[in-house]
Amino acid sequence: MTAYRKTAICFAMIMMLALSLIACTPESSHTDTEPHNDYVSMVKCPVIKGEIASTFAVTGTVSASEQAIIFYKIEGIEDPAPFYDLMGKKVQCGDILYKDVAFTANGEIVNVAYSKNVVSVTLLDCSELYITSLISYDQYTQLDYSTPVTVIFDGDKYPAKIQSIGYTFENNMTQLQVACENDQFRPGLEVELCFTSDVRENGLYIPYEALFQNGDQPCVKILDADKIRTVNVVCGEIFESESDGHVWKYVELLSGVQDGDVVIFEVLEGSLGSHIYEEFIQ
């Protein structure tokens, strides 16, 4: 089963849910012959309900169209120092570069050169940047031009839009092009592209630690009044959420449980987070 990165948006009250510690019972998975571990506790947690989005991510590279790089040459300059001060400056279309020479686009000055009384200024028009990536045929079948896409760079996220999707394949891969105007991007920069391929409303999921195997059959323990019963489940995708240096892991359940059920399981104390987070990253 292919695991996708996923994002789950829960109701506010579920987001603030705290896992409750309860006393070990005779129906704990430990037996009398097993050594007792003072750091193991039984935990109960309601099955979590929320909107679940299936996503996948690929690496992309920032590229520039021919129109992205604009050159300006100014002759008869004896002192180039004021032009060197422009390096890295962001300018707007119409801003004056020198006397009657104005910039013809918004962008950032990325290079200034001087030779034989001639100053050359290079402007990068960020609106002409785009991102290219390769996707597999399986990923291709999950996309169209309306598929939401997010560019992730240096921990920040930027909305983007699919610009073109290839239709010829080589080694099961085709090219994809995404538009995302960002003045932090430079040609050659590697970024991550995250595509939301499917959204399931009212999805159900639980902490991954609550899942166990009975042979080849995945199961969970349900707390029903004062009794614990074991039920077979069908699993969907696996979620992971990173916070404060820890990774919290969750699993989607497609059948076997329902909203309102409470699962019970053993954990090492301190190994679970106290809140349900909005973002789950594979």
In words, what does this structure look like?
- The protein has helices at 12-15, 81-84, 137-140, and strands spanning 5-10, 20-22, 40-46, 48-64, 69-75, 90-91, 96-98, 101-102, 107-115, 118-124, 129-136, 149-153, 156-165, 173-179, 190-207, 212-214, 217-224, 227-232, 234-243, 246-255, 262-268, 279-280.
- The protein is mainly beta.
- The strands form five sheets. A six-stranded antiparallel barrel has the order 4-11-14-13-12-15. Strands 5-10-9-6 form a four-stranded antiparallel sheet, with no helix packed on it.
- Mean pLDDT is 81; it is low at 1-36 and 273-282.
Low-confidence regions: 1-36, 273-282
Proportion of helical residues: under 10%
What letter string, H or E per element, gives the SSE order? EHEEEEHEEEEEEHEEEEEEEEEEE
> Structural class given helices, strands, pairing?
mainly beta
C-alpha termini separation: 13 Å
Radius of gyration from CA coordinates:
27 Å
Q: Kindly state the mean pLDDT as a whole number? A: 81
Biggest β-sheet strands, sense, barrel: 6 strands, antiparallel, barrel
- The total beta strand count reads 22
Number of helices: 3
Beta content: over 45%
Which strand order spans the largest sheet, edge to edge or round the barrel? 4-11-14-13-12-15
Shape: elongated
